[in-house]
Write a structure and sequence with these properties.
Elements (H helix, E strand, L loop, with lengths): L7 H18 L12 H13 L6 H41 L5 H16 L2 H5 L9 H18 L5
Helix pairs in contact: 1-3, 2-3, 3-4
């Protein structure tokens, strides 16, 4: 990208706008499944109790899935806002005094900008995906599910 000396500010604005849009566009695609945390189950039990509904394990898990999804979406929204604000602040800094610095400053500035722009939501929120379940773990969970279904008198799934 070549920049004419008379229009460096417009080129900088265009580059920063493109950088912000491309960096933020993939944030929601990172996590594939929502992890249900204990706090989600606590919230689910509280909601069911407040609504006067008997809190069975199945109902708690159903509401906890929604609570986990809401918690995750809220965290992603907050992380995206922080990243956007950081990139906008960097853009303001660059617009204000881009002629006053040497090339070494620009190298550091670009490195900081790239670091912020390429940080994923998972990195920013430090949310690790759950470890993959082993075949033995899957079999054990299916056996437990089958036993629970048999005790309730239903058919196993």
């Amino acid at each position: 990208m070549t920049v004419r000396a008379s229009r460096p500010r417009k080129a900088i604005d265009a580059a920063l706008t493109f950088l912000c849009q491309s960096a933020l566009s993939g944030w929601r695609c990172v996590m594939k499944s929502t992890q249900i945390w204990d706090v989600d189950r606590l919230v689910a039990a509280k909601i069911l109790t407040d609504l006067g509904i008997k809190a069975s394990k199945d109902k708690i898990e159903a509401v906890a899935r929604h609570a986990a999804k809401h918690r995750e979406e809220s965290a992603y929204w907050a992380a995206k806002r922080v990243q956007t604000a950081s990139l906008e602040r960097l853009a303001e800094q660059l617009r204000g005094d881009y002629r006053e610095h040497q090339s070494v400053w620009y190298d550091g500035f670009r490195a900081a900008e790239a670091c912020i722009a390429t940080t994923t939501a998972d990195d920013a929120l430090q949310i690790a995906p759950p470890p993959p379940q082993s075949i033995a773990g899957i079999i054990r969970s299916r056996i437990r599910l089958s036993k629970a279904e048999n005790q309730r008198g239903g058919s196993p799934t």
